[in-house]
Specification:
The chain has about 240 residues and is an alpha/beta fold. It has 6 helices and 7 strands; from the N terminus they run αββαββαβααββα. The structure holds S-adenosylmethionine. GO terms for molecular function: methyltransferase activity.
């Protein structure tokens, strides 16, 4: 499919396949369980990668449509779907134009994906479109550091990192992007850990949001001030990371 050619990153895909098992052991598996706990009904997962979430969906989930643009990762996800405890259909597609009608899903899941989508605003608008009114967005994403000097290092390193790591950006304020897209964040935890031996500890957000009718007032205020937000949770050391 031509439209997906810009998402083909075979070297990154092989590297992700190799490193994801280590990452799961270092804490990612536990975060995936929290991410998916309590979900039910029809779920769309965007940027499913090699399907590392699939084993963690609760039995109340009736079906998952897992969208993945990269050919190698999608092949691995198809194998993982066959081993999953619930029905999972893996489809080719990308976040900017999800292959689904409006209001199709009860919930949407993104994990370690909003760092990589070319346009967060567009991807989040698509997630909103395919969710039923009041539908839930579950997210687990690494984000920009709350410490100014770490954030500056991330700004400096991100262009090179992005080329090596499948388009990933280290310095995105994803919680604020979720709010700006018109979601109301209901739960937002911050976790700091290193997902790989070679990587420093990174700040992650883990939570859920609902598609609201309009962006909440706090979001509009933050936008007027022209700066990001620290989120609703995460007091303690993680919030300063
Ligand atoms: C770091 S991997 C994470 C995979 C998986 N979600 C996980 O939790 O292990 C990033 C994934 O996002 C996918 N991706 C990148 N850009 C995307 C886009 N625009 N739409 C959908 N998926 C995208 C990549 O192909 C890759 O599978």
């Amino acid at each position: 499919m031509d439209e997906l050619s810009r998402f083909q990153r075979p070297r990154f895909a092989r590297m992700y396949e190799r490193t994801s098992a280590e990452s799961e052991r270092r804490g990612t598996a536990g975060h995936r369980r929290v991410l998916l706990a309590g979900l039910s009904g029809s779920v769309v997962e965007v940027g499913a990668g090699n399907g590392m979430n699939f084993g963690h969906y609760p039995p109340e989930v009736a079906e998952v449509v897992a969208v993945e643009p990269e050919d190698i990762l999608r092949g691995l996800a198809e194998s993982a779907a066959r081993r999953a405890p619930i029905p999972i259909r893996v489809v080719a597609g990308h976040a900017d134009a999800l292959p689904a009608p409006d209001a199709r899903f009860d919930a949407a899941v993104v994990s370690l994906v909003l760092c990589s989508v070319p346009d967060q605003r567009r991807g989040l608008a698509e997630l909103r479109r395919v969710l039923k009114p009041g539908g839930e967005l579950r997210f687990f994403e690494h984000v920009r550091s709350a410490m100014w000097w770490r954030a500056l290092v991330q700004d400096a390193v991100s262009p090179l990192w992005s080329r090596m790591a499948g388009g990933c950006h280290l310095n995105r304020d994803t919680a604020e992007a979720i709010r700006r897209a018109g979601f109301q964040i209901d739960r937002l935890d911050e976790v700091v850990y290193s997902p790989d031996r070679g990587l420093p500890a990174m700040r992650h957000i883990l939570g859920s949001a609902r598609a609201g009718a309009a962006p909440p007032p706090a979001t509009r205020a933050a936008r007027r001030r022209g700066r990001g937000s620290r989120g609703t949770g995460g007091s303690g050391p993680a919030a300063r990371w």
